[in-house]
Amino acid sequence: MIYGDTTNYPDLKITQLNVNRYSYLNNEFPVEIFTTYSGSDAITTQFKITSGNTTLYQEQIRFSKDNPSQIVNLNLTSKKVGTQSLRASLTPLTLEKNISNNNRNFAVEVIDQQTKVLILSNVIHPDIAALKKAIASNQQRDVSIQNTDDNPDLNDYNMVIFYSPDNAFAKAYNQAKQLNKNTWTITGPSTDYEFLNSQMTAYSIEVDEEVDEVQPILNTSYTTFNLEDYSYDDYPPVQVPFGAVKMNTAPDVLIYKSIGDVETQQPLWFTYEENETRHAVFLAEGFWRWRAQSYLDEKDFKNWDELVGSQIQYLASNKRRNRLELDYKTFYYQNQKIIINAQYLDKNYEFEDNGILNITLIHKKSNNRTVRPFILDGNSYTVDLSGLEAGDYKFTVKVENDQLSQSGALSILEFDVEKQFISAHDQGMKQLVGIDGVYYQGQIDEVITQLLKNPLLKPVERSSTSYASLVDWQYLLGFILLLLGLEWFLRKYSGLV
Q1: What is the pTM of this model?
Q2: Cystine design at 101: which of 10, 13, 243, 260 (Cβ 3.0–4.6 Å)?
Q3: Are residues 437 and 474 in the same domain?
Q4: What is the mean pLDDT of residues 299-305?
Q5: How many domains does the chain have?
């Protein structure tokens, strides 16, 4: 049964819009727009992109029956830090019925600068390529690879990754300490563990020529950053130095070692803070296989790349850690799930799973107030804001019975799937069920008649007989035995037996 108008009207439509989520201040970013026309006459319309009341781009587009689609490619300039909300539109035709699909809202988050990451290594190894690709998958980050002979100035970078360090890294480690740089140390095929122990005060590694092959055990209680979206299954083993790791400070362990079937409490990947700096340590070689396994499992590298990205995000800043941390995007499209994650820690900076968190959102234009609770989801709290009306919001997340709150802002861009179509798509239904199987709004009586005639839908009367042994009716059997016993007693009492 098809409801809706099936008449074909002239219609202009923006079918798809491609744009990067991020751009850098004063840089150009590309926009690609796919437009289509349904009609028989040749027409000309105006395409434009606006920001508020300001027109940023416009051009004339011609369509015809023989040329019903056009692709518009253009570059816009990022002029202000923050979320830049934009609107692409086609000027409606005179006889056009549906003009909602002539417009498409989109946004770009403009950032002031990239996070600059240095990978310092004197060896060539597939781990380095996997690490670089994972970091560079986020456009907000710029990664460089150098060796110690290049004498890089660490002051040019937000953080430094030391891969397979040995004596040649002494100058770089000293400079990192002097500049209070956050670091990530990753052991590799030529790591000098005696040198590494001499550089570190937070931990030490037993020196041995042998290596172990271990598999990762994810610490689900890890609190330094959110692991909710990360999953792994049967990752291949990596090579680690044989011997125990002695910790001289309290680490936050992300991954433990599993040797064979034995799950140990020995750290494989951990983070710690020292004075005003943050550090990560990964005591393994061969994690490029994990990125490859991520692709085999998920058909993309997103799972592994986002885990590395979370580590980089943590190390790229020295901002003091808050007991209440929020994870959200600055803008969402109305047709996608809108999720905000929160991590709530107690005064010892351990995850608190008994918190009561609520978010209060205020629509900036209408001042409508919405309050929704967070729910506990594993090692974090989440709230689903899907279904909110489009617009700009400011919000505050508060913890009941604790003087903690965090505020922010986000935008929800309008997009209604139903408004993208001018009429009911009866041709698709005919292809699915056949011409004779399609009925329209005015044919309800015919539908009822066909249903009544359908032999598959006639009422069928069936009877069934079931048998059960008396011993299965325990209560009935007990009642009968009770009556027989009572009869025997009465007859005995009356002298009839």
Answers
A1: 0.59
A2: 13
A3: no
A4: 89
A5: 5
